[in-house]
């Protein structure tokens, strides 16, 4: 159909000149006659082309007469105006739903699309105003009358208030929504200071107040639709823990509850444990960082012996100690539903490691076990290795920072030769050394199930690296290998580069902080030209220098599979910046590039303003990159201005880090202005850039217009006022 506006006929509906169609619209007593033109209507609408030529219409005195009683005159007038002028105008006098239904019937799909957008914006407007009941009622109307997509469904059913300081009125309104049992299924209230909110119960006198926690929990006891609730970092305290325990006893739909970092204490932990003995719907519970200690741990262990629905329990950093650890180990003998248990950093020790190992020999449901930072040492490691020889269900084991040593490493390596289910093994920071690495390398030549292995920070050195490289030439299952901070040196780097030329399964390789040097960089660059499997490569802090950096940049011009490259802190220089810019103009696969400084190292890549300008020009052409870190590169104002210009043109970048670049006033203002035009960037870091109050005012003005930015970091600047946005859902770090 011809879709251009009929501008030369724009006045015809009013003048009714040379009309050949009469359309009677509406029902008595509200009927209106429209005098229109067959050619125009049939050119814009297949519906009218068919309807005015068929038995639906009749002829009288040379005119086509058509009745349309199911559309009201005001709605039809809007549609006719659009057909003749190409302009959709409503002025909020007619229901958008009525217009959509009519436009959809007549086949004016351009109007249908515009109305969908208007309706979504209207729903979002109610939400931002804190009118949550109205929001849901509006979504119900949308779903009732209009075809909706997954995004609409998510907007209506999943609400995220994280990091937003909710006012008392909003908590009241939210509680009403929960009491109404609407389509809301997921609610994120993380970090909203819920524990300190008081809610007015008597709205006339505002005299009697109660806690926001009590208001919310009362509503949850009546709710029957919510399945996921995130309350991370709300300082609920033990009373809050008890209140949510009551919810678990009464609510029969909640499946996922996150109470991470809420100071619940032993009492809160015990109350929730008692609730788990009665609850039959919760499947996932996160109690990380709550100091529930051994008493809370024992209570939860007892609950696991009775509960038959919980599948995931996170007890990270809770000071469970020996008693709590042993109690949970004993519970694993009886529990037959838990599939994931996180005991990271709980001061368990060797004996508790052995107890858990014994439990693994008999438990047949647990698939994921995290024992990181528990000082189980070599003996605990050996016990777990023996358990792996018998266990046939565990797929993931995290033993980070347990000092299991080379002997524990050897025992685990032997277990990998016999175990056929483990897929993910984390042995980071365990003092495995070269001997432990060699044993694990030999195991990789035989094992056919492990897909992820983390050996970061184990002093495996060059020899260990070479044996692992040899294993990669034979192993066909491993997809992720972390060898960061292992003093591999040039020898280990070259061996691994050679292995990449042969290996066809590894997709992720972390070689950060291994002193590879320029030659190691060149060897790996050569491998990238041949390897077609690797998608993630971390070469940060490896002293690659200009030569190694240029080689990597050249490789990117040929490589078509790598999507993420980390080159932080490599003293690359401006010429490498230019070379990488050239690569970005040719490479269409890379989505993430890190050229910043490592968090443990203040040194940079010294890309400079010239390198920054080259990268900015590349961003005007590149359509793949979504993440770019240029932090600590001395870009200065010229680099900042060039990148600002690029943001006005680029439509794919979502995250940009320009922290510590001495951008100054000009660079800051340019970037702020760019945010008025850019519609894709969601995260921007401008920390420590010598921005002043003037730049702050420009940013404040921009934030009232930009609707896509979600995270803005401006801390460490000279802005002497607190930056506030009318968009409550942007997080500003200042």
TrEMBL record:
Keywords: Cytoplasm, Cytoskeleton. It is found in: Cytoplasm, Cytoskeleton. Its main location: cytoplasm. Signal peptide: none annotated. The keyword Hydrolase does not apply. Residues 19-92 form the BTB domain. It comes from the Eukaryota. GO terms for cellular component: cytoskeleton. Coiled coil: none annotated. This is BTB domain-containing protein. It comes from Gigaspora rosea.
